[in-house]
Each structure stands twice: as C-alpha cells, then as structure tokens.
Amino acid sequence: MTIEQLKQFCSTDKTRPGLNAPFSQGEWTLATNARVAVRVPRLPDVSENKEAPDVLKLFSECNFDDPGRVWVDPPEPVFTVTQCVWCDGKKYLDEKEAPRDPSDKGAQPCDGCDGKGENRSGHVDITGPLGTTTLASIYIELIRTLPNCKIGLFGDESTKDKKKGKSSHLLAVCLRFNGGDGLLMPMRIFNND
Ligand SMILES: [Zn+2]
Questions:
Q1: How far is CA 89 from the centre of its chain?
Q2: Residue 140: inside a domain, yes or no?
Q3: 111 Cα: distance to centroid of ligand 1 (angstroms)
Q4: Would you say 55 and 49 are in contact if contact means Cβ atoms under 8 Å apart?
Q5: Cα(84) to centroid of ligand 1, in Å?
Q6: What's the domain range around 139?
Q7: How far is the CA of 114 from the centre of ligand 1 (A)?
Q8: How confident is the model at residue 187 (pLDDT cuts 50, 70, 90)?
Q9: pLDDT band, residue 193 (cuts 50/70/90)
Q10: CB-CB neighbours of 105 under 10 Å
Q11: d(CA 139, ligand 1 centre) in Å
Q12: CA of residue 36 to ligand 1 center, whole Å
C-alpha cells in the first residue's frame, strides 16, 4: 500500500483536520473518513497527528479472529444516479450555495457532488450467519480498490444497535486485504423486533 492508495480513505471535510490525511499511531499508519478505516504497518514517512481520533482503539475492540465471522468478497456495488440536489446539476455554486453556471462570477465547484452535477447513492445487502448487513455502495466501491479485500461479518451489524439502544463502533464489519486490515461501518437499518 502506498500513501496515495491510503489517501482515498481520508475525509475531504475540512472541518475534520484529523481525518484529511493518513497518520501514524503506534505500529500502524491509518486513513479514515469516519465511515471506513484502513491501516497498514507504520510507514516511516507518515507522521502522527494530534487531531486524529484513537482509531486503534476501535480496531482493538473488534475481534477479527472470531470464528462466528464469515469472510466474503466485496459484492458488486449498485448505484442510483440522480441530479445533484445542491447545484441542480449545474456543477457550480456561488458563495451563498445557490446553483451557478461555471462562467458566472464567484462560481465554485459544488461540494455536494464534487462538481459532477449528480449524486450517486445505493447499498447492497450481505448475508452472514446472524442476518443481513447493509453496506453503502460508495464504500464497497472504495474497498474494492484494496488488493484481495475480504469482508468479515456476522450479519447483524446493521440491526444490533437497536437492541443496545445506542450506536456502537463494535458494529463495524472487518476488512482484510494484502498488506493491512480495516473497519467499515454498515448502514443502520432499524427494525421493530
Ligand atoms: Zn452539485
């Protein structure tokens, strides 16, 4: 894994300076956008970042070797493409976040669609021993760039939090790939059981 590959997993949200670049913690170098995190053995040229959250704690709380976990290939992501609701498909906004043509004064690429004019959404259900876990297609697409990535899950990660009455990072599914491992938060599906 190179720093460039890790950067894909960083947040582009400038209000989260701890997540905008890969960082090192302990024996590891990590990258996360708060929904998916990956780590590789520490790279000498990636420094620590005081603003970064304690992501290793999350890893230590997930038992990758639990025999109840099944390991599967990431599925093919499924997307629905719709016109961007922020820029009405114009790809540009002004400083008041109103849609603009690119030639207009003060026009800036739309953050809501990265200047593409459209939003992609979608999810895929993966069945494990304990049920069905729902993962967002954008993150499935991202983890499929990892070499030989496998998803380790129980199948109840999308619903377990309802029983606990609060969200918990223990609900992440585990990732393994050549050269490192990771965690991915499922989508929350609340049922009434
Ligand atoms: Zn847009």
A1: 25
A2: yes
A3: 6
A4: no
A5: 5
A6: 3-76+122-184
A7: 7
A8: confident
A9: very low
A10: 6
A11: 20
A12: 23
Q: How far is residue 106's CA from residue 111's CA, in Å, rounded to a whole number?
A: 14
Tally Cβ neighbours within 10 Å of residue 61: 12
- Same domain for 140 and 106: no
pLDDT in tens, 40-78: 999 999 999 999 999 999 999 899 999 999 999 999 999
- Contact in structure between 20 and 14 (CB atoms under 8 Å): yes
Cβ count near 78 (within 10 Å): 11
Q: How far apart are CA 8 and CA 21, in angstroms?
A: 9
Indicate if 42 and 92 belong to the same structural domain: no
Instruction: Assess whether 97 and 147 both reside in one domain.
Output: no
Ligand 1 centre and the CA of 85: distance in Å?
A: 6
12 Cα–ligand 1 center, Å: 15
The structure tokens listed for 84 are: 């961007």
Query: How far does the centroid of ligand 1 lie from the alpha carbon of residue 99, in Å?
Result: 8
The tokens describing 16, both together, are 């989260």
- Note the pLDDT of residue 77: 97
Angular region, 116: left φ>0, alpha ψ -120 to 50, beta rest: alpha
* R_g over Cα of the chain: 18
Q: What is the pLDDT of residues 106-126, one digit of tens each?
A: 899 998 898 999 999 999 999
